[in-house]
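Priority: medium. Attachment 1 of 2:
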């Protein structure tokens, strides 16, 4: 292993053999720490050869180091919403704007991205994937549970871009795993198994991989705010079934009633800004 000379928080394991470059991003938000031990585990075990890498180049990268140091979710920008040209070209003193340019360089030189997160609401783990360059085929082999599709169909025309959307825009393979709730004791096993399965799929390590029965979920609409004061009526966990006519949130002093039956995904309890996403609608495929 060597630390990348020009980009802090980046560690590279490089055999110098031409092979798919697997990059794992973690800790983009300070509070999403359920899986941090997994990346440290991989780094340590790659170093001491307890996990033997074969033909490989693996990159492990911390995301938002300044937010981590300050104990805040972000400094000025959500780093997972600015992988877009206007930020790449922008001259700024903002840490996140300059950091995204460094991380873009890593993505431009990677073949496969694994982007790891956890959630604020109670949630079983789930994966974001698209029907892009056999991604669904890959995840049906290495992932055991819920797979969310059409994330990018909803995001494509919006202002914010995440890592998956950027990777797909340059023809690369990318996945995002939402791995349990922050600090969940169950996250380590899920993340370790999934990471090793991915490395095995691309023949970077020796590892047994089973075929799984997955559940495809279609994300079909995004709820955004109309004011600067959005509040849920009650705390809502991921995957809660919402019924038509149910009162569940307020946008300033306006009561918002569900217009249809749906299942809620990723409710955002942080102080939101106008036109920012606050949750997602989904249904089983």
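Attachment 2 of 2:
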């Amino acid at each position: 292993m060597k630390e990348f000379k020009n980009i802090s928080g980046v560690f590279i394991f490089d055999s110098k053999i031409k092979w798919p470059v697997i990059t794992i991003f973690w800790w983009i938000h300070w509070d999403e720490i359920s899986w941090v031990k997994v990346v440290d585990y991989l780094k340590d075990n790659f170093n001491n050869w307890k996990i033997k890498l074969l033909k490989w180049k693996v990159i492990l990268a911390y995301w938002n180091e300044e937010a981590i140091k300050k104990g805040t979710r972000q400094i000025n920008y959500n780093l997972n919403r600015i992988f877009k040209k206007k930020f790449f070209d922008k001259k700024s003193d903002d840490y996140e704007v300059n950091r995204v340019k460094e991380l873009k360089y890593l993505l431009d030189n990677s073949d496969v991205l694994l982007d790891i997160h956890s959630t604020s609401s109670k949630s079983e783990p789930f994966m974001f994937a698209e029907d892009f360059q056999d991604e669904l085929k890959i995840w049906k082999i290495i992932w055991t549970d819920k797979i969310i599709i059409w994330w990018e169909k909803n995001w494509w025309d919006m202002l914010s871009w995440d890592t998956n959307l950027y990777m797909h825009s340059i023809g690369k393979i990318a996945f995002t795993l939402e791995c349990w709730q922050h600090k969940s004791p169950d996250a380590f096993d899920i993340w370790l198994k999934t990471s090793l399965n991915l490395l095995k799929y691309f023949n970077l390590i020796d590892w047994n991989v089973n075929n799984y029965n997955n559940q495809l979920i279609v994300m079909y609409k995004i709820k955004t705010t109309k004011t600067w004061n959005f509040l849920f009526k009650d705390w809502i966990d991921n995957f809660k079934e919402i019924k038509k006519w149910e009162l569940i949130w307020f946008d300033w002093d306006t009561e918002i009633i569900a217009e249809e039956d749906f299942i809620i995904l990723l409710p955002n309890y942080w102080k939101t800004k106008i036109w920012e996403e606050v949750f997602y609608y989904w249904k089983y495929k």
